[in-house]
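fwd from M.: "can u put these together and see what the complex looks like"

so here's what she sent:
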Amino acid sequence: MDLNEQELSQAEKDRREYRKAQRKRSVWISLASTLAFAVIVWFGLIATPGWERVEQSFFNWDVAVASFPRVIDGLLLNLRVLVAAAILVLVFGLLLAIIRTLKSPVFFPLRVLSKGYVDLFRGLPLIIVLYLVGFGIPGLRLEFLGRIPAEVLGIVALTITYSAYVSEVFRAGIESVHSSQRLAARSLGLSYSKSMRLVVLPQAVRKVVPPLMNDFIALQKDVGLISVLGAIDAVRGAQIEVAKFANFTPYVVAGLLFVLLAIPTIRLADRISARFTSREQQGVTL
Amino acid sequence: MIDWNRPRLKVVGLKKFYGDRRVINGVDLEVFPGQIVALIGSSGSGKSTLLRCVNQIEDLTDGQIFLDGEEVSAPGVNQDLIRAQIGLVFQSFNLFSHLSILNNITLALRHVKKMDRDAAIKLAQSWLTRIGLGDRGESYPDKISGGQQQRAAIIRAVAMEPKVLLLDEVTSALDPELVGEVLDLIRELKAGGTTILMATHELSFAREVADWVIFLEQGQIYEQGEAKDFFEKASKPRTIEFLSRMRSR
Ligand SMILES: Nc1ncnc2c1ncn2[C@@H]1O[C@H](COP(=O)(O)OP(=O)(O)O)[C@@H](O)[C@H]1O
Ligand SMILES: [Mg+2]
């Protein structure tokens, strides 16, 4: 790379010439394929006989503008639920994971319980958990709780389900910390809990950042499901507007807003996991 | 006052079984203050297990361990406190990979010895300077050489002022050109009076620095003697065979 042109051997010059030709070719190919793709979309969708009607009822600009305030209002509720659920999930997920790594026989029942919990809620569809929590807890008629808002019930249901996933992520992280790190900590006189807190967990958490980001992205979408409990979130707000205008555009608006919300997280997750991969390829122990 | 005639470390009838596997099968040994005792033996003979039992990061199957005459294997003894008085350094992966070299050393000083932050840093820094790593305190373990890592791991243990230091083949995982600097540090510790029980494959080093040599074979002491002439005077067949195997490497 640092050689100047004159110093290059003929072989390297040929190679560079060849690569340049290849690059030119790929630019042409990608242009051609983009064009071909546009043509297919045109004939496959926009030139279909029903397109005009679909456009009217899904991509109506006036309806989009009119429904926007209510949808964005609802999205703020989704965001609040997201933040609350994410924090609770981290706490409970970590707690469940730590319980499962406790070796002492004293913790046998707790360990079995947490394993059962994880198995159950990894298998149970979120929507069912939402219904069970959403209609089950109020059904208990716990007077002292008063009337629990739908979004709180939503947070509870999301936390229950996502803690199960996230505890598995944390557990894998804890187990991937080299056993001699734990032994080294113990041999210095650190107690079990201190070696966990000061040595094992900090290393485990670093390792699980990429998979945790993926769960966060999934949670970001699933907060939209709290609408089934009647919380006026972006989805429910869109639903109301759909009924008002007899037009589906508000759903598209809500969908676009969710995607916009997710994109920064998705990019961040990509960047973080790329950094982790390259660090691992360099043989760096995190 | 140090009682030079009382063993710093005394192991009596130590046994460690994994299921049916009798990995340590009745070991007695003593290490006196300021002494270095070398444990030699083929791979799998139980050297590491013995050291881990002395430090009690492994539960004992049977036997007793005394530190300055006090039984530390007795039920009810706070084993975390005991471990803080027995340093242990492994072949590799000793340093905490998420902490700088300096913080590796201060961690136990602060959280076990309850030193305040500044005092711990000062102590750690003075040790690092002594071993020529004074400017590497902020580096992370993966940014320094294996020899530097092992030296940092050894002083991390020594900074706790343990009554006895256990070294488990601390040079075995190193490139040959890095072995010397670690052995130099052990020589220096001996000169400073540190009491050491070390498993090693470096026979000439054992002969040079150790006072006593123990040859371990299938979890038992097969032969032992004074380091200065053990390597010539060893008389039992398996010892002779082991020594000649090591020499021809
Ligand atoms: N946790 C364990 N479970 C079962 N066997 C073990 C365990 N740890 C060590 N061993 C066995 O004990 C024997 C002695 O191992 P070790 O103490 O590492 O020997 P050395 O350090 O002399 O090479 C080996 O045969 C090994 O397989
Ligand atoms: Mg070993």
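replying to her w this: The pocket of magnesium ion (ligand 2) is lined by residues B 47-48, 168-169 (CB under 6 Å).
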